[in-house]
Amino acid sequence: MGPSCSREVSNVFDALRELRLWFSPETVRAEGETPDYRFSLANERTFLAWLRTALALVGGGFAVDQFLPHLADWWRIGLALALLLAGVLCTGRAVNHWVKCERAMRRGEDLPQSRLPALLALILGLVALAVVTVVLLGCAG
Questions:
Q1: Is the Cβ–Cβ distance between 93 and 86 less than 8 Å?
Q2: Model confidence over 55-71: pLDDT tens digits?
Q3: Is the separation of the CB atoms in 82 and 127 below 8 Å?
Q4: Angle (CA) 121 126 131, round 5°
Q5: pLDDT digit string, tens, across residues 82-92
Q6: Which one of 14, 50, 77, 119 has the fewest CB atoms closer than 10 angstroms to its CB?
Q7: pLDDT value of position 1
Q8: How far apart are CA 104 and CA 35, in angstroms?
Q9: Rg (CA), the chain
Q10: What distance in Å separates the CA atoms of residue 84 and residue 5, rounded to the nearest whole number?
Q11: Could you give the CA distance from residue 101 to residue 103 in angstroms, rounded to a whole number?
Q12: Between 135 and 44, whose confidence is greater?
């Protein structure tokens, strides 16, 4: 097994360990020192804000699919799926970022950065452009 393959296997195991931490907050709490509770509460509020965003995206996807039957099927399904998938991304990001931030605070490390907010903004921007196109061109089924 070459170095790049072993690195990929290591990355998979790291990802699985991270996933395990999602369901094991006591393991996260056992690391490092307890931060000022205000920081942990702020981290939790951010987590909940991401979940609210995910719920809004899922609701938007459902609404597009159910309440815009006059759209051509490919427009309706495409827009609904884009919103639903963005909601799925948000839920995964919420819990993963919460764990990473909590661990970083306990270890005295810099908070993690993520490209997902930029990706989410890009997805939503594309969905918004598609909706503008549908409205301007009247893409009915």
A1: no
A2: 999 999 999 899 888 88
A3: yes
A4: 125
A5: 999 999 999 98
A6: 14
A7: 55
A8: 10
A9: 20
A10: 34
A11: 5
A12: 44
Kindly report each contact of residues 37-46 with a partner whose C-beta sits within 8 Å and lies 24 or more positions away, as own/partner.
39/105, 40/102, 40/105, 43/98, 43/101, 43/102, 43/105, 44/98, 46/97, 46/98, 46/101
The number of residues making up the chain comes to: 141
- Kindly state the tokens that stand for 101: 């931030």
Tokens representing 41 are 């509460």
Q: What is the residue whose two structure tokens read 């452009």?
A: 129
The torsion angles phi and psi of 95, rounded to 5 degrees, stand at: -75, -40
At 71, list the tokens: 């759209």
Residue 11, both tokens: 């990355």
Q: Which two tokens stand for residue 60?
A: 């938007």
